[in-house]
Amino acid sequence: MSVREANFDAMAFRQALGRFATGVAIVTTIDPHTKTPLGLTISSFNSVSMTPPLVLWSLQNSSTLLDTFLKTDRYNIHVLTAEQMLLAIDFSKGNQEERFSKVSFTLNEFGIPKLDDTCCAAYFECYNKSQYPEGDHHIMVGQVERCSHTDDMPLVYHAGSFSLTPSKGK
């Protein structure tokens, strides 16, 4: 069986994908060499399995953090609340020191940065189970070792912007 060549333009594909509202999360780990905290904002987070408890997220192949996340044993995923749009923006740009200077965090028992409990709608401590290169991204599968949640409204990403709820199409 062969794969058909896609017969559409990239912009139309991107706009169609933008119609799907997603949550927003920050993934954190530790630099194995310098022991400094590392993190980034993602909107590609999903559940995979209840038994065992698995989640997935994806990271661009061009990310400067790709090598670290491919090699780390563990990472934490923090689902952001509706009030955390600025934190999501902060963790999507700038250097790592700037990102972590704007939020309080502790290190969990494995030395992985855990954002303050009061700041997240949900939290997942994950073992880095597997990774799969696909297209211009790597799919990361994490086995959840511990999780918690609040009743706060989650931050939503839809049609290229952050929101409390999905907005009408542009």
TrEMBL record:
SUPFAM superfamilies per the UniProt record, alphabetical: FMN-binding split barrel
Keywords, sorted A to Z: Oxidoreductase
Keyword Oxidoreductase: yes
GO molecular function, one term: FMN binding
Pfam families recorded: Flavin_Reduct (PF01613)
Gene3D superfamilies in the cross-refs: Electron Transport, Fmn-binding Protein, Chain A
Oxidoreductase found in the keyword field: yes
Residue ranges of every copy of the Flavin reductase like domain listed in the record: 17-164
InterPro entries xref list: Flavin_Rdtase-like_dom (IPR002563), NADH-dep_flavin_reductase (IPR050268), Split_barrel_FMN-bd (IPR012349)
Family designation: Belongs to the non-flavoprotein flavin reductase family.
Protein name from the UniProt record: Flavin reductase family protein
